[in-house]
Write a structure and sequence with these properties.
The protein is an alpha+beta fold. The protein is built from 25 helices and 27 strands.
Length: 785
């Protein structure tokens, strides 16, 4: 019986090859897209979930209430972690971590390797599940002069990972540090990446005066909270604990689950409002929609084909076949197609995974384990069920005598289901097209917005101690090199790293004692000119005016926040220094475009840690070769490592670029899936209406008239889809753009382009079938009837 049943299923699929091909193609593409999205979503959600203490691991977040709202930061007082571990019973363990800011040199013998230096408390490897290859997790960072290396860095320095007990030197510090452990480099599933860990005790004792001051905030603090602790109540205790230690603290504290920091990293007014989780949700929805579109194709093609199979179903019923058997047959066809499509989809994923990894910047692989294949089987089953349920019950539900008389019809169901599904499918296509256009415009804005400074043809590199000691001489030689237009330095960058921040500043005329959160940027002479910034008032720093050590430059946002008129010459007190404002620079972006330009001030600080060199366009190669020689001469022969400023800027928005590219590809595939279904529907519709078209042609209708009549039914559905999808897409894209402080206007032109695109796609898809139907010889068609 089952052998005969399977033969019947297979013959049924082979009988109408066009139907089978269209369904296989649509389902395979849809399933392949869904699987790729599933792998990406799983990879995103897996970040930081590998820690054994995940359920109780939290990060302390600090909030400060200012006139423009609540600002949130990861920096916390240096003493906080240690104090909480000792004094708060709910805390099972605490770790303070100071992320690496300075890219300098770690040396072992004649080997010199650049790396960022991180500092961490001794319990780091007890709280977190970073894998130690050598060393005891309870003691690797206990000694002040201990250092822990990643396996990659150990191989570079010693050509081995068995290096416990060996010594290394940091930059030009005469102190030797002992290697006490080697860990496996954190992989892509970790949001914390480091290669070089020093003891937090060493960092703490470098500046004990500031370290013991609860007003200073630098490191991030992570807590292992005891099981059963109520987090809202503990957050109140944290803030009370801080205020007991420092009554003047403006901070309130909260807890964020550590494994949420990667996906939920964006805060607005002190509340977590999302982050990368938006992209995870977006592509999860896209994956579901693409799979639904593929299933809709199957439903529509199956119900369109139903007219040709009605008599077959009626005869089977007359011969004794029950409805259950017919449902089983039609569901069997659907399941067979679904699992065949799944096999094809797996092949497509295997081929496309490598370029997909390049697009997303990931290193994903097909997991060859039982849960994955169980998930695949579930996807195949659900797809077959969704795709085949309506056709099966539709075909098996008619009364046999009505079917054989040709009187079985359900026009209202066909209108509500088949045409409704086409409208749903094309509504999604329009939404995708609008999304592609809006995201593309936003990415273009990011790439081309006036930042208030020029980033082209500028290279950046670190100013290390050897170089810093002779920086003036080095700068003079660099300035004389062919192709160099300017050189300067500063203790910050344009991507969110600053020289510090404070709300404890005062200025002339601030009688009300207003508080403003300022960002500090310590800059060298000539930096403003090198970056092409514009002065709104006053002057920039210049040696022509003698020492500018007590001069300060503010941006326009600072002037506005202070409510200051005629700022030039007025006093500005900060960090124990009394400065005078000598200039107002026009606002420029020193953070990402997710943030509005904040109040900032610049102090003159020659020989900052970051060096910028502006190079004449077209002479990059020869100029960099000259810089390489000069750098090695002044920096003990160490390799010259640099980045281009415009590339660093682009890296800030890699996620947006990836989303834009992925969205374009998935939109194209969604359109292909919909077009395959529409092509099949048009073919079946042409067969069904052939007699009608022939009669129209006999009474004088031209081929063009017939093509228009044939196309109108489909164009009406497209118009309905557009009227539904435009409001939805406007709402969805406005919600996405809300994340950016600087964003594009969606504009009517976006919807006009989307409408024309979907109209053209529809006409191209059904055009062949409409002209084919219009050009058939009426005599042939009518004779066949």
């Amino acid at each position: 019986m089952w052998k005969n049943f399977c033969k019947t299923l297979w013959r049924s699929l082979l009988k109408d090859r066009q139907f089978t091909f269209l369904n296989l193609m649509g389902l395979s593409i849809g399933l392949a897209c869904t699987l790729l999205i599933f792998l990406w979503v799983q990879d995103e959600r897996s970040v930081d979930k590998f820690h054994a203490n995940d359920s109780g691991l939290y990060q302390v977040m600090a909030h400060i209430n200012l006139p423009d709202g609540i600002h949130t930061q990861e920096s916390t007082p240096m003493l906080l972690g240690r104090s909480l571990a000792k004094e708060m019973p709910e805390v099972e363990g605490a770790v303070s971590v100071q992320a690496g800011r300075l890219n300098s040199t770690i040396s072992a013998g004649d080997k010199h390797i650049r790396s960022f230096r991180w500092f961490a408390d001794k319990d780091l490897f007890r709280l977190f599940s970073f894998r130690l290859l050598e060393g005891n997790k309870d003691g690797v960072l206990a000694d002040k002069y201990s250092v822990v290396l990643s396996d990659k860095l150990a191989m570079k320095l010693f050509n081995s990972t068995h290096v416990t007990g060996k010594t290394v030197q940091w930059a030009d510090d005469p102190q030797l540090f002992t290697v006490t452990g080697v860990f496996q480099s954190p992989g892509a599933n970790s949001s914390m990446h480091f290669d070089l860990l020093f003891s937090y005790e060493f960092y703490y004792q470098q500046d004990t005066a500031n370290a013991n001051n609860w007003a200073n905030s630098n490191p991030s603090t992570y807590l292992l909270v005891k099981e059963g602790t109520k987090i809202p109540g503990m957050e109140k205790k944290l803030t009370a604990f801080l205020h007991a230690k420092y009554s003047g603290s403006p901070l309130t504290l909260s807890l964020r689950k550590y494994s949420d920091r990667y996906l939920h990293g964006q805060y607005e007014n002190g509340v977590a409002v999302g982050g990368r989780i938006r992209y995870v949700r977006l592509f999860s929805i896209i994956g579901v929609f693409i799979l639904l579109m593929a299933c809709i194709n199957f439903m529509n093609l199956s119900t369109a084909k139903a007219a040709g199979r009605m008599k077959q179903a009626g005869i089977k019923k007359v011969l004794g076949a029950g409805r259950g058997l017919l449902v089983l047959q039609y569901m069997g066809e659907s399941m067979l197609l679904s699992f065949l499509s799944l096999i094809i989809a797996l092949g497509l994923v295997a081929v496309l995974l490598s370029p997909f990894n390049v697009l997303t910047g990931k290193q994903m692989a097909l997991p060859m384990d039982v849960p994955f294949f169980a998930t695949l089987a579930g996807i195949g089953f659900i797809t077959g069920l969704l795709a085949g349920c309506y056709p099966a019950f539709y075909l098996s539900g008619g009364k046999s005598f009505l079917i054989l008389k040709g009187k079985f019809s359900q026009p209202w169901k066909e209108l509500l289901v088949r045409k409704g599904l086409v409208v749903f499918q094309y509504s999604l296509c329009v939404l995708f097209i609008v999304a592609v256009l809006v995201v593309g415009k936003q990415v273009s804005l990011i790439q081309n917005i006036d930042l208030g400074y020029k980033k082209d043809n500028i290279i950046a590199f670190q100013n290390e101690k050897h170089l810093m000691e002779n920086f003036r001489a080095f700068a003079a030689d660099v300035s004389a090199a062919p192709g160099v237009q300017a050189i300067s330095s500063f203790n910050a960058d344009m991507y969110g790293s600053s020289s510090g921040s404070t709300e404890k500043a005062d200025w002339e005329g601030n009688v009300a004692g207003a508080k403003v959160q300022f960002t500090a940027l310590d800059v060298d002479y000539g930096l403003i000119e090198l970056l092409g910034m514009k002065m709104a008032e006053g002057r920039s720093f210049s040696r022509n005016f003698g020492s500018d050590s007590l001069s300060i430059i503010v941006n326009q946002a600072a002037v506005e926040a202070m409510g200051m008129k005629n700022p030039i010459g007025k006093s500005f007190d900060v960090w124990g220094g009394k400065y005078h404002i000598v200039g107002v620079v026009k606002d420029f972006h020193f953070e990402s475009l997710y943030e509005k330009v904040k109040p900032c001030f610049m102090r003159c600080n020659p020989s900052g840690r970051n060096v910028l060199v502006k190079i004449e366009g077209g002479k990059e190669r020869e100029t960099i070769a000259q810089l390489d020689k000069l750098y090695k001469r002044y920096n003990l022969g160490l390799p010259f490592e640099f980045t281009f400023m415009d590339q660093d800027y682009a890296a800030m928005y890699a996620s947006e670029e990836h989303v834009s590219v992925l969205l374009r590809w998935f939109t194209v595939l969604a359109i292909v899936i919909s077009s395959l279904g529409l092509f099949g529907l048009a073919a079946f519709s042409a067969q069904k209406r052939q007699k009608e078209m022939s009669i129209r042609k006999v009474v004088g209708a031209s081929a063009g008239d017939l093509a228009l009549v044939f196309s109108m039914d489909f164009l009406k559905l497209v118009l309905i889809a557009v009227s539904i999808s435009f409001p939805l897409s406007w709402w969805a894209m406005n919600d996405w753009l809300h994340n950016f402080s600087y964003r594009v206007d969606i504009g009517v032109n976006v919807f006009a382009v989307a409408f024309l695109a979907i109209l053209l796609i529809t006409l191209v898809t059904i055009g062949f079938q409409s002209m084919k139907a219009a050009l058939v010889n009426p005599a042939t068609s009518l004779r066949g009837e």
